[in-house]
Amino acid sequence: MASELTCKELVELVTEYLDGQLPADELERFEEHLVYCGPCVTHIEQMRETIRVAGGLREEDLDAAVADDLLAAFRGWREGAA
Amino acid sequence: MTSAHFSSREDALLVDALRRGDEAAFVELVGRYGALMLRVARLYVPTRSVAEEVVQETWLGVLRGIDRFEGRSSFKTWLLRILTNIAKTRAVREGRSVPFSALAQAELETSEPSVDPDRFFPQGERWANYWASSPPRFDELPESQLLSSETLAVAREAIDGLPDAQRTVITMRDVAGFASEDVCEVLGLSEGNQRVLLHRARTRVRRALELHFKAGEA
Questions:
Q1: Contact indicator for B157, B211 with CB cutoff of 8 Å
Q2: Which chain B residues contact residue A49 at CB under 8 A?
Q3: ipTM of the predicted structure?
Q4: Looking at CB atoms within 10 Å, which of A29, B88, B97, B177 has the fewest?
């Protein structure tokens, strides 16, 4: 029988778990651990919230000069395409 | 819209408009992906100004090729694929060709634990390697605090402080919402390495958030 997963081991597998990429036997050990370990459930919840916060970020805008150049290129393309 | 998680369906509508020569659609797409493109291009070429040229060249390629884009992959994946091809060619010409995989490899060679080992009971104790005390809950924080501009700034700073490969992977996966296979394809990474980089990046951001929320309590 495979040994129990410790918390210290589990925290290394969270991204694999969230991506649904844990092999079946490891997934079983992982989920068994969660049944009795509230702190690990909390840790996973922290990771989910972290992902949500990252998803709330927006990349900064391009420099206005670069954006202007792109717009000029677009207008040139449209003229040529028309 | 505050999120950079743009759906493929929204993108597809914009692409249709772009085909018709709609300027507003072009501006919107550049707004969505321009900064991410610059960030990725910067991984390959030596200066910001060369990276800007790569971005510009990519958009020209997009405009020229838009009629051949069939939507088999998402627009953003197609876009980034064009970008990395141009960036790689340009890097060779600039005499600097450090493939992303090499950059990633260097980061993968070092390792660090996901959680400070002091948070677990030490070796030799009955509960060795189990949590010594429960980590704080983020999901009980009010939504207004979890997604406040202050919290977002902490996450932004943590991401900006990451090594290049980790920063790029978390930006693509979690900030811009790319699927893992698309990140692998665009950056030339194996699935496993991509996941290790993402895990480390998330771990550092998580840690920064935990410190931030803890300081807020005090």
A1: no
A2: 138-139, 146, 209
A3: 0.88
A4: B97
Cβ–Cβ pairs < 8 A, chains A and B: 163
* Residue at a domain's end among B68, B93, B118: B93
Q: What is the pLDDT of residue B96?
A: 67
Same domain, B68 and B128: no
Output the pLDDT for position A26. 95
Residues of chain B contacting residue A4, judged by C-beta atoms under 8 Å apart:
none
B180 touches chain A (CB under 8 A): yes
Same domain, B65 and B111: no
Residue B2 placed within a domain = no
Chain centroid to CA A51:
5
* pLDDT at res. A82: 54
For A25-77, how does the pLDDT look when each residue is reduced to its tens digit (9 = 90+)? 999 999 999 999 999 999 999 999 999 999 999 877 788 888 898 999 899 99
The fold of the A7-81 domain, in CATH, is Arc Repressor Mutant, subunit A (1.10.10)
Lowest mean pLDDT among A35-49, B64-78, B96-110, B172-186: B96-110
Total domains present in chain B? 2
| Banded model confidence at residue B5, pLDDT cuts 50, 70, 90 | low
In a shared domain, residues B121 and B190: yes
